[in-house]
Batch of 2 targets.
Target 1
Amino acid sequence: MECPDCGGSCVSQEIGPNQAPSTQLADAILDVEEGDHVVFTRQCWTCGWSEDRHIKVTAIETDVGDPAIVERQQRLSELVDELQQIDDDETLKAALRDVRRRRQSTDNATTEPEEDGV
Ligand SMILES: [Zn+2]
């Protein structure tokens, strides 16, 4: 991404708190628990611009189905809403792509029929 302030390309991105430096935004979001938050920090090494975004995981209501799965999907859709507030297109698109991919793989995993030892 480019720095919104000076246009420089030396912008680092960091995910926190308690996330490894190499953690991707979507990973951090998928790991975070309800009521907790992810801090997404960007810093320009050229001009010193920096920004913290706090992405909070809000209350999750469960619906029909396996509560864990519903919870996860609702969490993801809420997070997508949160992510849409990020104004850096590249970061946002990358994160959303990642989240969608994960959601799809979750769907695939959960649509398999359950067989009781037939
Ligand atoms: Zn800058």
Target 2
Amino acid sequence: MKRRNFIKNASLTALGVTVFGIMDSYSKSTGFFNNLKVNGKRIETRIFELAKFGLDEKGHGTRVAYTKADIEGRAWFIELMKKAGLDPTIDTAGNIIGKRKGKNNSLKPICFGSHIDMVPDGGNYDGTLGSIAALEVMEILNENNMITEHPLELIIFSNEEGGTIGSKSMVGDITTEGLKQKSQSGLSMGEGIKAIGGNPENIQTYIRKKRDIHAWLELHIEQGGILEKENIQIGVVEGIVGIVHWEVTIEGFANHAGATQMNMRQDALLAASKFIIAVNEVITSVKGTQVGTVGKIAVQPGAYNVIPGKVIMGLEIRDLSAEKIEMLFKQIENRAAAIAKESKTKINFARQANESKPALTDKKLQQTIKTTAKALGFTTKLMQSGAGHDTQHIGAIAPAAMIFIPSIGGISHSPKEFSKAVDMENGANVLLQTILSIDKTS
Ligand SMILES: [Zn+2]
């Protein structure tokens, strides 16, 4: 702990003021009313141990959900949960759930965890950090014979990377159609869930409802480069951005590239170029952290000597505010109408069905994480998550929040993904003390 924080905490104690409850066992080493600290070395060792599952001959990680590597990685994790006395079970959606009793088991559980599946050629920290740190919290409590008021649950969600399937199922958001969808493993979602010990036919029987969970916490790597760049230790996640996709079709007229005069053309690709620039201008014209991307494009017919007659593009907008996404899209539509008129083309937008709504995290939990991190001597920043997480679904039924730690170089979903051991330890300590702080709330 930094001296500055110690002085602040000490003076708060002297005044009898505390946000962490009882003052009987105030610790100078942690700044809290307990002496608990996670074992950073054990977290790092386990990150490397889990990374061995799914390594191909080139040393790349391929622990994709429902594959042999995923099944073996899960078995390794389940074994550790058993050793920690968590009596792990697998729910109908293939989520692994380990429970630790509290003093008052009529209270709703405090739940925390993440996922251990990865994208093909993925990294060793995405999801695994939150999972291993959650187990670490349980073990530290065991080793210190500490029983919380609330029961605790460690949850490892199944197939996060293939569409947050486990968490969606837990809140009842998975459809029969969704279960038929093909997963990255080659199996359908339903077949995959069966392969990891779930029960897709009865997936609805394990749905959690509003107020079934006291609070949900997920520690995760940032996956972007903000914390590292600004030299901040802990990110307090304000929310997970909403994502909307549109297929944009521009119709011009395919004609001879030699014989058609420049002023006679209806060039769909030229219109598309102007459209892409317009998207960038609209997105950057207002303050905020919104992002907009044209990430794919197909040109027809696609030849040296033919004026492009048709272009199909993919437009994506992300932001924490659904209204802002709509407002930006309206402006893009207006710009598109002007481009279509000027280029004598037609521009159509087809909104895609796969959109996800912005999910704000719980304000009180944000505050608790921030206060906890500060008391541990860490710098913090309120930030959004540009990537999707299981937390966005659990947030629909329970107060939910996320803790971020720096990703070196902002690289993720890549073998180059890396977070420092000290940052992982810091994040896990924030997770531990946040859980103990929430435990004092009813
Ligand atoms: Zn993740």
